[in-house]
Amino acid sequence: MARGRPSKKDHIVTVASGLFTEQGYQSTSIDQVVLAAAVSKPTVYSNFPTKLVLWETVLMLLTEQAQAKMQARLDKLRVKKNVTLIAGWIVLWEAWISKSEHLAVYRILLGEQHKMAPSTFALFAAFEAVLESTLRSWIAEFSVSPMNFFALKAVSKEALLMPALMNQAMMEKKQFTDLICSISPN
C-alpha cells in the first residue's frame, strides 16, 4: 500500500457509509458499492463477505467518528463560561441529531432489525453509548439525579430525535427548554 493513501478497505467503508446514509440498508446493494468505490466485486467480497458485515464495519466507523465529534463539542462547551445545564444539553442533542449519518443509523436499525445479527445490536448499543456518555459527562458538572437524567434523556428522544427521524417538525426551542427546565431546574 502506498503511504498516505487510504487502503481499499477503508475506501470501500467510506463509500458504503455515504450510500447507507443516503439510501438506507435495504436500498444499498453491493453492486452500488462496487460502482461508487470503483473497485471490483471480488475486492469488496474479499474484505466484506456479506452486506451485513460491511454495514457493521460502517457502523464501527460511524461510532468512532461520533465519539470524536461529540467529544470535541463537549470540550467546546466546557471552555465557555456560564453555560447552563439546559443550554449545554440542548447543544449536545442538536449536535447529535444534526448529523444525517447518525439519523441513518437509527433508521436502518429500526427499519431493518429483522435482518440484523446480535453483533449489529451490540454495535448499535456502542453507537448510542457515545451520546449517553457525552450527556453524562456534561451533567457530571451539575447536580442531576439519575432519575432526572433518565427523564431528560427520554423527553429529549421524544421531542428531538423522533421528529428528526420522521422528518417532522420539532418542538420549538423555547417550548423544549421550558419542558426540560421543569424536569431539571438547573
Features:
186 residues; 9 helices; mainly alpha
Task: Report on the architecture of this protein.
- The protein has helices spanning 8-23, 30-37, 41-47, 51-79, 85-97, 100-112, 118-139, 146-165, 173-183.
- The model has no long low-confidence stretch (mean pLDDT 92).
- The longest helix has 29 residues, at 51-79.
- It contains nine helices and no strands.
- The chain has a single domain (8-183), classed as Orthogonal Bundle (Tetracycline Repressor, domain 2).
- It has 186 residues and is mainly alpha-helical.
Superfamily (CATH H level) name? Tetracycline Repressor, domain 2
**What is the tally of helical segments?**
9
Largest sheet: none
Q: What sequence of helices (H) and strands (E) makes up the elements? A: HHHHHHHHH
Computed over alpha carbons, the radius of gyration is 19 Å
The outline comes out as elongated
Number of domains: 1
Global mean pLDDT = 92
Q: How many β-strands, per DSSP?
A: 0
